[in-house]
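Form 7-S
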Amino acid sequence: MTLSAISFSPETAARQFLPVSDPDDSMPILSVRDLTRLYGPEKGCQNVSFDLYPGEVLGIVGESGSGKSTLLAALSGRFAPSGGTVRYCQTSGEWLDIYATSEARRRQLFRTEWGFVEQNPRDGLRMGVSAGANIGERLMAQGARHYGDLRAAGLQWLSHVEIDPARLDDFPRAFSGGMQQRLQIARNLVSSPRLLFMDEPTGGLDVSVQARLLDLLRGLTREFSLSVILVTHDLAVARLLADRLMVMRRSRVVESGLADQILDDPQHPYTQLLVSSILQT
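Output:
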C-alpha cells in the first residue's frame, strides 16, 4: 500500500497537519492523583501524583523493575489502575477522567490528541505498508481522505524527522532501526497530538544513532510545544530531554523536581546512588 502521487499544494497541506501550541500553558494538561497499580509487593506503581503542563517534558527514571513502565501504561490508558485517577484537559478546556470514560473514547484520544512512541519501533509501525501510509494512516483515522494532502503531509514529516522524502513509498522493513524509530515519531506527530508518551525511545540503538535521535527529539518537543512523558533508565537521556524528573524505586516515587536540580544535587539516597553510578562509568 502506498499513497498515490496526485496533484496537491504541499505548503497548504503541510500547514494543515503541523502541531500547534496550547493557547494556555498555565493550566495542567494532565492531572494524576494517587495512581496505583500493583501486581505484587512493591511491583508496579503506587500513590503517584503529579500535574503535567503544556510544553513540559516529564522524565520517569529508575532501575529495571522500579515500576516506571507500569506507571507509563497506567497513565496512557493501557492498563486500568487499581486506585487513583488520571484526568486529561481536552482542547475544549473540559476535564476527562480517563478511566471513567469508555474504551472507545480512549482509543479516539490516541488517534487524535495523544501519541505513543514504543521502545521497539516495530511495535509502533505497520511493517506491511509504506512509510507514507504509516504517516497518513493517523490522518485518515481523523477523517482525512484527500490523497494529495496525505502525501504532502508524509513528505513534510519525513523531512522533519530527517528521512529522505524520496523514501515515502519504501516499506519500514527496508529502514535501519534508527530510521524506523524516526518514522514512528513522524507517524505519531503528524496528527498534531498534544500529549506524547515515550517508552525508552533510544533503547537498542548504538551511541551515534542515539545522539542523532535525541537531538531530533529535543528539537521537535521544543518546536511544537509538546507535552511529553518519557520513561528512560538513561540519565543522560533524561538530562537532555526532560524539564522535570520523577525518580522511582520499588513502585514509589522517591524524589521529584527540576531535572538539573535532581541530577546535580540529588537528595534521596537512591537518587544519589543512581547519579554516582553514572558518573563512575
